[in-house]
Write a structure and sequence with these properties.
Blueprint: E1 3-4, H1 7-14, E2 27-36, H2 52-55, H3 57-65, E3 75-82, E4 90-100, E5 113-119, E6 122-134, H4 137-146, H5 160-169, H6 171-177, E7 180-190, E8 196-202, E9 211-216, E10 224-230, E11 246-247, E12 252-255, E13 259-262, H7 267-270, H8 286-299, E14 307-310, H9 315-333, E15 341-347, H10 352-363, E16 370-376, H11 379-382, H12 386-393, H13 398-414, E17 420-422, H14 427-431, H15 443-454, H16 461-470, E18 475-477, H17 483-489, H18 501-506, H19 514-519, H20 532-535, H21 542-545, H22 550-559, H23 564-568, H24 570-573, H25 582-595, E19 621-622, E20 625-626, H26 634-637, H27 653-657, H28 669-677, H29 682-688
Parallel strand pairs: 14-15, 14-17, 15-16, 17-18
Antiparallel strand pairs: 1-3, 2-4, 2-10, 3-4, 5-6, 6-7, 7-8, 8-12, 9-10, 9-11, 12-13, 19-20
Helix pairs in contact: 4-5, 5-6, 8-9, 8-17, 10-29, 12-13, 12-25, 13-16, 22-25, 28-29
Length: 690
């Protein structure tokens, strides 16, 4: 007999099988879950320790609402008990906030799910809370049916397929079957034996977050009273012993018996000697790569609400736009809708990103095809936002926070119009897009470094993407990190990803991501091409591309808020991941105000930055970022003469070269002339190169 504390669970059980053909509904959201620890001697409901999330309905509701920003379209909670007299019973509870993307008016499929599944001689009762998008949910359910499963779905939710697969195949196989971005928690009871199980999993790359920790018994025992899971740290604060809180790593599942177990460990990621390109029979053509990317883009277009894309003006987001637009126009034409797609760019006035994004929009057909929304900002307007950004980011990693600030503004603007965006995240980790790769001594070094930084995506790039978009109720999808596309790209000879230092200086072929740029030089199915100045512009991290002097302005400001005495005592105040600069200390102080005792959960870059952990030495970066931003592109070499915040007049490269700190650098004259011929001024044309 299922024991529930919510109407929702009873309704789902009563309507079982009633909606097998219901329209698919997808949700991005926030989840909260708790269950008594019945896997240790003293755990379980029979001891009834004080765990507010399990015993206080108001506590469950209020804590779930902390995650409201992740799912502003509504929330549900469920609670009850699993287990019987032959097994230690366990109290459980789940909360879920909803951001509806497909079939948004259908409330029947709201989670948590509380489902019964028949088994030989009995039944399983499965409680599920999930956050994410399962692109192959139909295939997963069909696989259940092929192997004898005859329990119909009760809704059109893609996440319901997780519950069916779990009941049929078990947790580990289910996690490995899923294609998408996800984090989920399941509590299961075998109604015949009373046995209780718990299972949690996170997607292979770490696109969606999941944390867990343990509460303490109210007595002097060291035994944990319960396990608590959440999409974000902030919902665990006050409920868990901080020392027990950890992030579920990407590609891992968790059970109370096994702990954390890696289920996604492809050969390219685990094998140091992986080199299929050395086998003559291994063939991957450029067309194969382009086709795989197009499939990755198309599968991420599923939505019944308005969506758009982030267009930074960098090559990665431009490639997403290049592939997306023909699919969008085809999709819209089928329903007689010729509205332009929305795109969003952030930057200081006349910044390299903004100018390049404008050029890309023009190439895609201008305002008739693309509604370009630019969020301009000045440094002064964002300083007061930093405490809020750190609270939502749940990190103190300086490099990450620098880029999170413009991301916050970008997501805030996009969320006014749409609920979902596609982004260009992940290309740099597959195609060697960072400038320090020019110092890599060999292709094998490149391959291994890509594996290292790919493994950090869930802690860095994707952490930022999730937190900054979901802070505004916005979903971000990342086609470059499709697992099949990744497998294909990482099987290609890394010699094609080597970076020529001289080519970086001259903005020419051989620079970072040349392989990727050459893949998408040609026109898309609409006949539109990425403008050459944009396709070959230098890689700039968003905190650099939004404005040439943005990072230095930010660092000066926040450093002024930290005293020398505070800096001198940093090793005492913060013995774990001690701040090395005043900027780092300022972010750490803000983090500690909200997440005291959880400093161990943050996984910063070794050495203070991405480049510092590489197997080779590169003197291009320090903890404060790129040493010489002039290396980024020709446009940035003009910084001394015209900054994005400066009122100084334009001057020639020769005049700029007279300053001792800035050397003249060559740039691609053909690309510059092409921009001028397209109608850009000399000033604007130079900016499109960067």
């Amino acid at each position: 007999m299922l024991r529930l504390g919510s109407v929702l669970g009873s309704r789902q059980l009563a309507r079982k099988g009633a909606a097998a053909t219901r329209t698919t509904k997808r949700e991005m959201c926030g989840l909260l879950a708790a269950i008594d620890d019945v896997w240790t001697q003293r755990g379980g409901a029979s001891h009834a320790p004080s765990v507010p999330l399990l015993s206080d309905a108001d506590s469950l509701r209020n804590t779930t609402k902390i995650l409201h920003h992740r799912g502003p379209d509504g929330y549900q909670v469920s609670s009850g008990t699993v287990g019987n007299s032959s097994s230690t019973p366990a109290r459980w509870s789940m909360g879920h906030t909803r951001l509806a993307i497909v079939d948004p008016s259908n409330r029947f499929a709201d989670m948590p799910f509380n489902l019964e599944f028949p088994t030989e001689g009995g039944k399983k009762i499965v409680h599920l809370a999930a956050n994410g998008e399962i692109y192959n949910h139909n295939e997963v359910y069909d696989e259940c049916v092929k192997t004898g499963w005859d329990t119909p779905k009760i809704s059109g939710s893609d996440c319901e397929s997780i519950a069916h697969a779990y009941a049929k195949f078990g947790g580990p196989k289910t996690a490995a079957m899923l294609d998408g971005m996800f984090a989920f928690v399941i509590f299961e009871e075998d109604a015949q034996t009373g046995k209780v199980k718990a299972f949690a999993a996170r997607d292979p790359v770490g696109i969606k977050p999941l944390y867990y920790g343990r509460t303490k018994c109210s007595n002097s025992s060291d035994d944990a009273a319960a396990y608590v899971f959440s999409s974000e740290l902030k919902a665990l604060v006050g409920h868990c012993d901080p020392n027990t809180v950890v992030a579920v790593p990407p590609g891992h599942y968790w059970t109370p018996e096994e702990g954390l177990v890696c289920y996604y460990n492809p050969e390219w990621l685990r094998n140091d000697d992986y080199a299929p390109w050395e086998d003559e029979s291994h063939k991957v053509t450029d067309d194969d790569v382009r086709e795989a990317f197009s499939k990755a883009v198309k599968k991420r277009m599923m939505a019944d609400v308005d969506y758009g894309f982030f267009l930074s003006g960098g090559v990665d987001s431009c490639i997403v736009a290049h592939d997306l637009l023909p699919f969008w126009r085809e999709e819209r034409a089928a329903i007689g809708d010729d509205r332009p797609i929305s795109t969003y760019t952030v930057g200081m006035e006349n910044s390299p990103d903004v100018m390049a994004a404008k050029a890309m929009v023009d190439a895609l057909g201008g305002e008739k095809r693309v509604q370009h929304n630019i969020r301009s900002f000045t440094p002064d307007e964002v300083f007061d936002l930093i405490p809020k950004i750190v609270y939502h980011m749940e990190t103190y990693e300086a490099e990450l926070i620098r880029s999170a600030i413009p991301n916050w503004l970008l997501a805030e603007r996009a969320a006014q119009d749409v609920k979902m965006v596609l982004t260009g995240e992940g290309a740099d980790e597959l195609f060697a897009g960072y400038l320090y790769f020019q110092d890599a001594p060999s292709p094998r070094h490149v391959q291994n470094e890509l594996r290292r930084i790919y493994g950090m995506l869930g802690n860095i790039n994707l952490h930022r993407t999730d937190r900054m978009t979901m802070a505004h109720g916005l979903e971000a999808r990342v086609p470059f990190l499709d697992t099949e596309f990744t497998r294909l790209v990482m099987s290609i000879d890394p010699a094609r990803k080597m970076v020529d230092r001289e080519a970086v200086l001259t903005n020419s072929r051989g620079r970072e991501k040349t392989f990727l740029r050459e893949l998408f030089e040609g026109p898309n199915d609409n006949g539109d091409s990425i403008p050459r100045p944009v396709l070959w512009r230098a890689k700039a991290m968003q905190c650099e591309g939004v404005g040439e002097d943005w990072v230095s302005i930010l660092q000066r400001k926040v450093s002024s808020l930290v005293s020398d005495a505070e800096m001198a005592d940093a090793h005492i105040t913060y013995p774990v991941n001690t701040p090395h600069t005043k900027e780092e200390l300022y972010y750490r102080r803000l983090y500690d105000e909200n997440f005291h005792g959880l400093e161990h959960v943050v996984k910063p870059w070794e050495g203070g930055g991405r480049a510092m952990g590489a197997a080779w030495k590169s003197d291009m970066y320090t903890r404060e970022g790129l040493k010489n931003t002039n290396l980024l592109s020709h446009s940035l070499q003009q910084k001394a003469a015209f900054s994005t915040t400066s009122t100084r007049s334009f001057s020639t490269a020769a005049q700029i070269a007279e300053g001792p700190a800035i050397a003249v650098q060559h740039f691609d004259l053909e690309a510059y002339n092409a921009a001028v011929e397209s109608g850009y001024s000399a000033f604007e044309a130079s900016l499109t190169l960067g």
